[in-house]
Write a structure and sequence with these properties.
cytoplasm; 46% helix; 18 helices
Length: 396
């Protein structure tokens, strides 16, 4: 059991004088349960009475942790938990393209539910993709297995940006139906809705597909700032509408994936990206759902990503979680950051690494356990099921 008072291994950065070794206690004494509960109810006021967050999932370990409240155990889920690591996923996808699967409500719901049934994770994440909103808007994009999203026509000029179609609200109906089908099965297990952050979406649009350093969008924000701004605003509107549709249909939390933000300097992030991510997260601000903001290679961007409007920050495996929490001022819920590479290590090695992540997570007011990035496709599903059991037993 990872003690609440576990001594945290010395991190590479000084801890501010007087900060608690386990901020959980430091954060909680300030929390007046009655006041928090009243504020929480006010926060959810705009949601329908029957929304899962108002009738059950609010007391789930995931949502309580995102609210900064103690929970029966540390919640755990995995990015890319719905995917090729599951034989049942491969069977369900047989003969159906990726985007077609995302836009077939019964199939998207089934795939979303598979890892919850198999692993007993504390949250489902909606089976879709960050380029689905682009597709629904009418942009020529497909997902190539082993590569990722590929566009028919890269977006490189002001004219290309001006030609980008707006996402019609009715085009989101298959998404709403898939979410409704999913939450009808989930009961008190929360569904996390998600979207791609404007920079990551724009990086695919400008490059036309996956790239390592995202040089073209990073050049555009300096060489043609007006086109960059118009493109990022379009991406924020499109992703924001996608997020909102999932929440209105029943998602109890959202995650904004800025997977490729790590290629940005803090200066470029603050000057050219942060406000657009704030607009995407702002699309659900009035609905009160907890918001998680995740990126990879973002050790220098953590506070700026939180300040874009997140309740929690997803941290990748490259920075120790206590160091990340320190950079967030010790006052932000963190998510992560088990290294996916250790899923193929011997079980005792993985468990010791997970204990270290749990100990380091004690330095934040709340810790949602996750990987530092997605589940590798060749992962043994039993390793993930065992890891969920281990995390629950260690933190019960
Ligand atoms: C960058 C990114 C994308 N899509 C996503 C991101 C951000 C997360 C991350 O950083 O990995 C987000 C995403 N994509 C998918 C989900 C559903 C949730 C889940 O998988 O658990 C989520 C949350 C399904 C998917 N999206 C994709 C798959 C693999 C499709 C398959 O072959 O089954 C899944 C399960 C395809 C995809 N889509 C994308 C990539 C890079 C790929 C992988 C290409 C490949 O390796 O085959 C773009």
């Amino acid at each position: 059991m990872a003690s609440q008072n576990a001594r945290i291994p010395e991190s590479s950065e000084p801890r501010p004088a007087g900060s608690a070794a386990t901020a959980h206690e430091a954060a909680r004494p300030d929390l007046d349960p009655q006041a928090e509960a009243a504020a929480w109810q006010r926060r959810l006021g705009a949601l329908p009475e029957a929304h899962p967050l108002r009738v059950g999932t609010a007391e789930s370990p995931l949502v309580r942790t995102l609210r900064g409240l103690p929970a029966e155990h540390r919640p755990v889920w995995f990015m890319r938990q719905a995917g090729r690591s599951l034989p049942e996923y491969r069977a369900a996808r047989e003969g159906t393209g990726m985007l077609e699967a995302c836009l077939t409500p019964a199939l998207a719901a089934e795939i979303t539910l598979q890892p919850v049934r198999r692993h007993g994770v504390d949250a489902a994440i909606f089976f879709s993709d960050i380029v689905v909103p682009m597709k629904l808007a009418g942009v020529g994009v497909d997902i190539v297995a082993g590569r990722g999203p590929v566009l028919e026509h890269p977006v490189r000029s002001a004219a290309d940006v001006a030609a980008l179609p707006e996402l019609p609200d009715a085009a989101l109906d298959p998404i709403r139906e898939a979410v409704q089908r999913t939450v009808a099965e989930l009961g008190d297990t929360p569904l996390i809705g998600f979207a791609g952050a404007p920079f990551t979406i724009a990086a695919y649009a400008v490059e036309g597909g996956p790239s390592r350093d995202h040089l073209r969008p990073r050049t555009m924000m300096h060489a043609d700032p007006a086109s960059w701004d118009a493109l990022a605003q379009w991406a924020a509107r499109t992703s924001g509408a996608f997020l909102r549709a999932q929440v209105e249909a029943g998602a109890s939390a959202v995650q904004l994936f800025d997977s490729w933000a790590g290629s940005l300097s803090l200066g470029d992030y603050e000057a050219h990206v942060q406000r657009h991510s704030a607009d995407a997260l702002g699309a659900v601000a009035d609905l009160g759902v907890p918001r998680i903001h995740f990126g990879t290679g973002t050790g220098e961007l953590l506070a700026a990503m939180r300040d874009a409007g997140a309740d929690a920050v997803g941290v990748d495996y490259r920075i120790p979680l206590d160091v990340a929490s320190h950079r967030l001022g010790g006052r932000t819920v963190v998510q992560g950051n088990i290294d996916p590479a250790l899923l193929c290590a011997p079980r005792d090695v993985l468990h010791e690494h997970a204990r270290d992540v749990l100990r380091r997570g004690e330095s934040a007011p709340g810790h949602v356990v996750n990987l530092g990035h997605g589940v590798p496709p060749d992962t043994d599903p039993d390793v993930l099921s065992d890891l969920v059991t281990f995390i629950h037993e260690e933190t019960r």
